[in-house]
What we know:
Elements: H1 2-13, H2 28-39, H3 45-60, H4 76-88, H5 91-113, H6 131-221, H7 227-253, H8 269-278, E1 282-288, H9 296-317, E2 322-328, E3 333-341, H10 353-357, H11 364-374, E4 378-384, E5 387-395, H12 414-418, H13 422-429, H14 435-449
Parallel strand pairs: 1-2
Antiparallel strand pairs: 2-3, 3-5, 4-5
Helix pairs in contact: 1-2, 2-3, 2-4, 3-4, 3-5, 4-5, 4-6, 5-6, 6-7, 7-13, 7-14, 8-9, 9-11, 9-14
Amino acid sequence: xAAVVFFSLWCVGEAGRMGGSLLMxxxxxxxxxxxxxxxxxxWKPLVSLGFTASLLAGQLxxxxxxxxxxxxxxxxxxxxALGFILWTAPRRIRFIAxxxxxxxxxVMAFLMLSWRYGDGVGWFMPATAGDRWxxxxxxxxxxxxxxxxxxxxSAVGLLLALYQERGSLFRARxxxxxxLKETEIDLVVEQERIRIARDLHDVLAHSLAVIAAQADGTRxxxxxxxxxxxxxxxxxxRSARSALVDAQRVIEGVRDDxxxxxxxxxxxxxxxxxxxQRGSLKIASSESGTPVELSGGQEMAVFRIVQECLxxxxxxxxxxxxxxxxxxxxxxxxxxxxxxxxxxxxxAGQADPADRSTPRVGRGLAGMRERAHxxxxxxxxxxxxxxxxxxxFIPFGSRDATEEPAGSAAGGTVDxxxxxxxxxxxxxxxxxLPAAPASEASGQEADDxx
Length: 450
């Protein structure tokens, strides 16, 4: 824009002295080269300096017509380009441009004062006795005038650069302050999660240890009891030990570097189903379509949803509940169907019928919906006649579900807090995998009651 204005103003100002043709005007090429110098100053500063050097060299070697007495101000285009260079160019280029324009100002003064190049300054008398007298008396004055003009253009460019830099610093400071606030909030949240996880461990550790010890003691002292009772006692002991190990892994998984234990994947679902079948659920699992690899976060979401569905089926339907689990890979994503029968009434002595008839608002369904949403999909759940159906959809190629910190689930269910580390924890503790879901079922029940 500045180059267009510079060129247009000169054309308008010299319109009456061009002789009817812009190309025949003796100031045409100097004006074109200075316009190009301004146009390329912010884009290619070295090329801009090259246009100025080309003009001066062309005039020194008589390749370009010298300035007429009223055309010398075309040289100001070089100093305007200098201002743009000092505004936008790196530090090293700025020094090169300043030095180049200082030398150019000296050459310009010589070209305007020397009688060999047309006496191109209107307010000086023509020199006919050679250049020495003219340069001695007027050279420094004209050179100083050109430097003053260059300094004024340079000051404008530097002020613009300082203003822009100051604005950048203000924006950077504001971004840093916002980032600091967000970091402080994240730190407070993380500290609260760690505190809740540790409190959860302290509350559960003693109780779970007592439950496991009592169940083992009762089982060993009751060898003559029916096998169903012994299996139930064994399940109670395994579940308590597994829950205790999981609670311990919650604390161990929260480290200073923010890393947590490995998350469950789709390959862990068969072991989960086997464990829940030992807990007396009747599970029929099926699959259709060609399985597609999901992201780690999506696999974790599917595992948690299946785990929550089986846990709720055991809790609300009781032992012997029929559960149908189907994985459909034929669509644009994985569609998970889970249907479980609902018990019409609880057997006497096992649960309060009033509790069965009164719906309780728990966190299980909300947690499943949130997991599906974080995995890029959706989830619906509700009663359908004699069944309770859950349908979840996880699209292929979607974004990862947010990986949960080990202690983050302390605000949700107990099984969500412990399960991320369940598999490696059970392996190191020597506890079999099937016991994990049973402990997680009891944890979910405690959570829903909360």
